[in-house]
Known about the structure:
Elements (H helix, E strand, L loop, with lengths): L3 E9 L3 E8 L4 E5 L6 H15 L7 H10 L7 H22 L3 H4 L7 E7 L9 H10 L3 E5 L10 H15 L4 E5 L6 H11 L7 E2 L7 H8 L6 E3 L6 H10 L4 E2 L8 H14 L3 E2 L7 H13 L6 E3 L28 E3 L12 H8 L10 E2 L5 E2 L2
Parallel strand pairs: 4-5, 4-11, 5-6, 6-7, 7-8, 8-9, 9-10
Antiparallel strand pairs: 1-2, 2-3, 4-12, 13-14
Helix pairs in contact: 1-3, 2-3, 6-7, 9-10, 10-11
Organism: Cephalotrichum gorgonifer
InterPro entries: DgoD-like, Enolase-like_C_sf, Enolase-like_N, Enolase_C-like, Galactonate_deHydtase, Mandel_Rmase/mucon_lact_enz_CS, Mandelate_racemase_C, Mandelate_racemase_N_dom
GO molecular function: galactonate dehydratase activity; metal ion binding
Amino acid sequence: MAPIKSMEYIRVPPRWLFVKITxxxxxxxxxxxxxxxxxxxxxxxxxxxxxxxxxxxxDSIEHIWQMAYRGGFYRGGVVLMSALSGIDIALWDLKxxxxxxxxxxxxxxxxxxxxxxxxxxxxDSPTEVTAGAQARKDQGFDAVKMNATGHLGWLDSAxxxxxxxxxxxxxxxxxxxxxxxxxxxxxxxxxxxxxxxVEPHRPLFLEEPLLSENIEGIRQLAGLTTCPIALGxxxxxxxxxxxxxxxxxxxxxxxxxxxxxxISEIRRIAAMAETYDVALAPHCPMGPIxxxxxxxxxxxxxxxxxxxxxxxxxYNVTGQDIGTYxxxxxxxxxxxxxxxxxxxxxxxxxxxxxLVRELSKDAKAWVSPVFIGPGGELRxx
Length: 381
C-alpha cells in the first residue's frame, strides 16, 4: 500500500488537460481529463477531488472510482466523468508502472497484437478531401473519417447533401474505407436523405447521425439504412449507453475514455456492448494519454473494431500533436492500417514532463467553434 501524495492537472496546447498522480513511494501515473471547450469546469472538479483523495491508497482504483462517482448526491454528467477519467487513467498507469507491466496485463491480457486505426481528413467545413485522403494513405492508413457536411439548417439545400455523397465517393475511389461523421449537426429531415445518398458507397459507419438525446429518431433512422450506426462520444457512463443497446439502434459504440470515467468504465461499456453484438470503436480526437489508454482497453476487448487517432487532426493548429509530449512517438507508427499494441509499462508511452511543463505556461483553454446560420441563428457544431 502506498498512499497518494500529490495530484495535479496540467493544461497544455493545443487543447489537452493532463493529470499527474504521485504516491508516497515516488511512483507516478499520468491521466488525461480533456473536455473540449469546458477545461475550466473540469479543473474545478479536480480541485475538489484532489483535496479529497490525498492519502487514499493509490492501488485502490475501484474504491476511488466509486467514491468519486457515488460519494456525492449528484453524479454523472460530462464534467464529473471527465474529471474522474483523468484520475482513473493516472491510477491505472501508476499501478502498472509500479508492477512493470502494461496496463492490459492487469485487465486480463491482450487478445490481439495490432489495432486497426483511422485518422481524420477535412475539417469542420469539409470541401476537397481527396488530397487529404491520399496523404493519410501515404502515412499508412487504410481508413479515414470526415464530417459529412458543414453546418446545416433543419431543412436545407439538397445540393449540400449531394456534395457530401460525392466526397464520400471520391475517398472510396482511392480504395480507402471511410467513416462519415454527421456530428449531430444533421437534423432528421436531412439525415434520412443523407443516409440514403451515402449508402451505395458502403461507409464504415455513420457517426452521430442524430444527437444522442434523440434516441427515438436514431432508432427510426437505423431502420431505414443498412449503414452501421455509430455513437457514444456524448454519452458519459454505462447507464447512458444502456437505452441505445436495448433499443437495438447502435451497431458501433464510441465511448470516449476522457468522458466516461476512464479505463474502469470504458471496460464495462465494452463488455455491455459485446452482449448486444455491438462493436467497440473508441472516440479519441484527444491527446496522447487518452489514445494510449484507449489502446490498452482495445487490446483486451474481443469486440474491438477500430480506433480513432488524432494524428494531425485539424484541431491541432498550435504545432503540438500526439507525438509532441512523449519520448517514444514511434508507438504511433501506422503500417497497412494498423499500429502495434504498446508494449511498455503502464500506458506504454513515456511522458516528456519537462516539455509538458514548459508548454503549459500560459496555456489557454480551448474554445469550441460556433456555427451561425444565414438568419443569425445558432446551428449545431
